[in-house]
Structure formats: C-alpha cells, structure tokens
Amino acid sequence: MSTFYKLLAASLLAITANNFAWFALTYWAFLTTKSVVATSTMAGIFLVMAVVSGTWFGSVVDHNKKKHVMLASSTVTLGLFALALAYFQFTPESAFASVGSARLWVFVVIILFGTLSGTIYNIAIPTLVGLIVPEDMRARANGMFGMVSGIAFGITSIGSGLVLAYGGMGWVLRVAVAATAVAIVAVWSISVPERPIPRVAGESALKKLDLKGTIAAVRSIPGLFALIFFTTFNNCVGGVFFALMDAYGLTLVSVQVWGVLWGVLSFAFIFGGLYISKKGLGKDPLRSLFRINIITWTVCIFFTVQPSIVLLAIGTFIWMFLFPFIEATEQTIFQKVVPPERLGRVFGFAHSIEQSASPLTAFLIGPIAQLVFIPFMTTGKGVSLIGGWFGTGTGRGIALVFIATGIVGLTVTLVAMRSKAYTLLAKRFTEGADVPLPEKVS
C-alpha cells in the first residue's frame, strides 16, 4: 500500500497538470468566441479521441510497465503543451476570435492531444490497483483515487480560472508546462513492483491489442456488457452537461467566480472519495450504483429550474459527491471479475465503449441548444408559456436542455435496475465465482 500511496501523490500532480490547460481553454474559448458551438465542438472532439484511444491505451498498459507508460504519457503532454505555448505566442490574438478560425482549432487540437495523452493515468492506476492492492482494500483504494481526482479537479478549477482571468492564456500554458515537468520527476522517483510482462515472439501491435479476445473476456462474465452499456448511456446524456455547463455557468457569474466555485464544489469529489476510502462500497455495490443514479438524475431535473447560482451549486455538489461511487463501483467489479493479465485492456475497452455516445451528444447539443432551445426561451413561445416563472434568455434555454436530460436519465435508470443482466452480475460479484478465461486470451 505504501507504493500505492506514492502513486496517488504522483497522480495528483500529473492529473492536475494535465487538465489545467484544457479547463482554461474551455473557459477561454467561450469568452473569446461567445459561442456555445465552440465549447460543445471542443467537448465532442475530445470525446471522439477518447473513444478512439481508449482500447489502444489499455493494450499499452497491459504490455508495458505501468510506470514507463505514465512517464511516456506525461512526456508527450509536456512537449505538446510547450508547442501550444509557442503557437499562442506567435499567433495574433485576433485570429482566435471567430469559431470558424482555422488557427483557433489548430491551437485547440494541440492542447487536446496533450490532455488526451494524460488520460492513460485513468487506465494505468486502476489496473495497478488490481495488481498490487489486496482484494479487500480495492474498493477503498478506488475511493482514494476518486478523492485524488477530486482534489486535482478543485486545484485545476480554481487555478485555471484565476490564472486565465489575471494572466491570460499564455500564463495558463506556462503553468501547465512547469507542473507537467514536476509530475514527470515525481513519477520517475517511485519504484513500482511489477511482475514481468509476458512476451510472445513476433507478436504484432495488432495482436497485442487483441480486441476479439478482450470482447470474449467481457462476454464470458454475465452482466458485464450490461454494466458497460449502462455507463455508456449515462455518458451519452451526461455529454449534455459536459458540453453546456460552462456556458450556462458563465451566464450567471464571471469566469473568476465560476472557476473558484468549481474549486469549492470539488470538495464534494473529495468527500465522496474519502467516504469510500473509509467505508467501502458495501456488499452489493451494483444496487448502490442504481440508487445513486436515481438521486443524481433527480438532482439534474431540479438544479436549474431557476436561474440561481446557489441552486446550481447545491445540485452540483450533490452530483459531484456521488460521482466517485459510480466510478469506484465499476472499477471494483472489473478488478474482481476480470483476469488480471487482461485488466488494462478491459478498462481501455470499457472506456472506449462508454465514451462512444458522448461525442455525438456533445457535437449535436451545442447547435440544438443554439438553434432551438435558446431561441425558444428568448424570443419563442417558451417566453409566454413558462417564462413568467422559469425565466427567459440564453441561460434558461440551456437550463431547459438540462431538465429534459435529467428526465430521460431517471427513466432509463428505473427500467435498467430491474433487468436480469444486472441481477446476474450482482450475484457474480457477491459470490466471487471464478472467471472463465476464453481460449487464446493472453
């Protein structure tokens, strides 16, 4: 566990450094272009790349030492952030003012790939938990990783908003470069005990990926695909919030206040992860997963019902407190029922599948909000129908999107929790049955 604690500390540095530029870039893009299409398109591009890279990242984690993978990831991030800084310095500020500017999107893509490279930590760390942490401590270890993610989120939210507000995007990138360099040193200094990686003579990169074998391993476990698809659905509708939340918040408060607010709200992540690290997930984490989803979708229906930053903050705090339970539940189930030699690829495969629907949502929801819901609540029939109590304007149009999304999410959760597939998976987890490993799966 001492090694795991050191990895948590190093991950805190790496994740914070990795996300710092992306958070600020999202704020900056909306404030510069004044368009929700910009933020939703950025979210969509990021999620598409996450889908494409997830399974490959999982294969990289399985076939290499996890420490080396994390070091390589942060080194790539460092190089791309440095490139983005140079590009920003030598590009006129006016070139970034339009959502249709090619130079704006070149800048976005450079930072996107730098951030994307760092997402391999989200596969490497849970995989290491399954390999070096005792089974009875894994749920708590997953909670600790969720807590670290929450701390990183808070630091990033406050730091990126304040640095952007008072120093501009150039200083954001300087801080990101420096922090990434420190993270590389921290990871390099840790000795991680890993068993030798099995090698097959002449094995190609495609064979290492072995998508067919990974799918067979997932199919061999009753209900595991159902769990992945349920998370996929949640991410699909959750992509609405990913794409529009910053735009909505910035209609209520300034970028400084919004960044600080997210930093304060990130304590909910920390508290949720801390609770799991102390109490675990109970004997039936899958049942808890559905109950938590019922609460979160109910919150999503009501937390924007009025244009109130206080109401938004309370609802978001509840949602963020419960989110680590969702992450930790899936990780704990995978770590128990998936063969350890394939754990990284299953995590990567699940990551790809679960993110696959989000890009479509993120790409579509910005134009839909801009062309349908926002006009409906500014100059359309919504003003006379519900504007008297609901409010009118751009923010109210986005709020209506959030409420509709919450209703859909709650309905699907109530239906899914009664299905046979989830009953089988819950029984599999609690009884601890041996996991059949398909032939030729290495």
Describe the structure.
The protein has helices at residues 2-33, 36-63, 66-89, 102-118, 121-132, 138-167, 169-188, 205-209, 211-219, 224-249, 255-279, 285-302, 309-337, 343-355, 358-376, 381-385, 387-390, 394-416, 420-431. By secondary structure, it is an all-alpha fold. It has a single domain, classed as Growth Hormone, Chain: A (Up-down Bundle). The longest helix has 32 residues, at 2-33. It is globular, with a radius of gyration of 22 Å.
Label the CATH architecture: Up-down Bundle
Hey, roughly how much beta strand do the residues contain? under 5%
Q: What would you call the shape? A: globular
Helix content: over 70%
Low-confidence stretches: 199-207, 433-442
Topology as a string of helices (H) and strands (E): HHHHHHHHHHHHHHHHHHH
Mean of residue pLDDT values: 80
By CATH, the superfamily comes out as: MFS general substrate transporter like domains
**Number of distinct beta strands:** 0
The helix count comes to: 19
Distance between the termini: 27 Å
Q: How many separate domains?
A: 1
Report Rg.
22 Å
CATH fold category name:
Growth Hormone, Chain: A
Main sheet specs: none
> So what's the CATH class?
Mainly Alpha
Structural class of the helices, strands and pairings? Answer: mainly alpha
Task: Annotate the secondary structure layout.
Elements: H1 2-33, H2 36-63, H3 66-89, H4 102-118, H5 121-132, H6 138-167, H7 169-188, H8 205-209, H9 211-219, H10 224-249, H11 255-279, H12 285-302, H13 309-337, H14 343-355, H15 358-376, H16 381-385, H17 387-390, H18 394-416, H19 420-431
Helix pairs in contact: 1-2, 1-4, 1-5, 1-6, 1-7, 2-4, 2-10, 2-14, 2-15, 3-4, 3-5, 3-7, 5-6, 5-13, 5-14, 6-7, 6-11, 6-13, 10-14, 10-15, 10-18, 11-13, 12-13, 12-18, 15-18
